[in-house]
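Friendly challenge for the regulars: who can give me the structure tokens for this chain first? No prize, just bragging rights.
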Amino acid sequence: MTASNVFVSVANPDALMAGTHPSCTFPAAIVQLFRYVNEDSARDDTDGSGGIPVTTFTLIAANEPISAESGPFRFGYYDSGAIGTSWYRYRFADAAVTTFSPLSYPWLISQRPETTLRELIFEVGSSMGETVKRGTATAGASDSVTCTKLFKSSVVDSRWYRGSHLWIEQSADQLAPQGEEQIVASVDTAAGIASLDNELSASIGVGDIFQVHALAPVAEVIRCINRVRERMFMERHYQLAIDRTNTAGNRYTLPSPIRNKSDVLDVREVQYHTASTWQSVAEMHYEVEVDGDRATLVFFTMPETNVLDIVYEESYRQMEGLLLDGSDVTRAPIEWLRRAAAWEIYRWIYEGEDNVASRYGAKMGVTMEEVQALSGRYAPSVIRRMKTGAREPIGPRRGSF
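First reply, four minutes later:
Bragging rights claimed.
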């Protein structure tokens, strides 16, 4: 799936919809999001006319089910027109879209490099001793594929690819059998034709790109990639606006990715300066309470600022969802994910095949050392503050590899 790259946080949707929120004195119904070409144009805009309308979010009541992307406290959107220098602001509007709140503070998009699942699958196989090959079909049927560059040879034995898994990475027309896989039954090395053990749902066409994997079915490779993304974390920031009307009191619901106390790394008061682009940040005393799937931020004194910066950890799988289609993308660092997924595949083979256990056990050990080194570079560098009354700070978490 294509993960959202722009987020809007809403502190008290009920007060906004009732028209009792300090930043919105009318009943708000929607949130309008604008994109700007640079920081100057974002800061100069006063009414939205200087920005490009991107999308609209519909406000929902605070007692509705909490989602990481669609409210009630957080909304996410994938802006395909965004670049690394895009800035954003939002404002609230009534149902008739005739009354508007002031624009929010501007912020710069977080733009990380993306890798498609189809490219990631090939990268993982390539990092495991060239256990994957990629080819382009010059002819094909539902049970065979012709690729002379890959399969035609006077040196390679005809049994070389037998038992490997052939996966249709991308068909020329984006239709079936794209994404399907079958086992290679035999190869005619004189003609460059690979025959499949069973038929695909449609014939392989000219120009279809395929991969041949020697170690594991591609379906299992995808499952391994998704499993390791559960243990790969990134640092996130959540801007929480404080409601000084006491409607929310000193308790605020945190975004749904926060599921336990250790997910929250820090909470800081943020003061925006109107005369410059500077921000002042101050630490504050807080507690996180968890009740089932809902986490609540509790602070013991009223913050002196109107905005809090919640710093927390979130896994790539939680943020982006499952990668299932070849065109799905992830922003996890490819250097880290490539080796972590390779380790997960070695583990899968090690646990399932007794006769190769010792060989792949050694590969697991070597790969684990690489993964741990990469985790130290790409995982969040967590330094937790000492809390009042605590004996020692909670230690950093770099993933459970």
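The domain at 1-111 is CATH 2.60.40 (Immunoglobulin-like). The chain has three domains: 1-111, 132-214, 216-401. Your move, everyone else.
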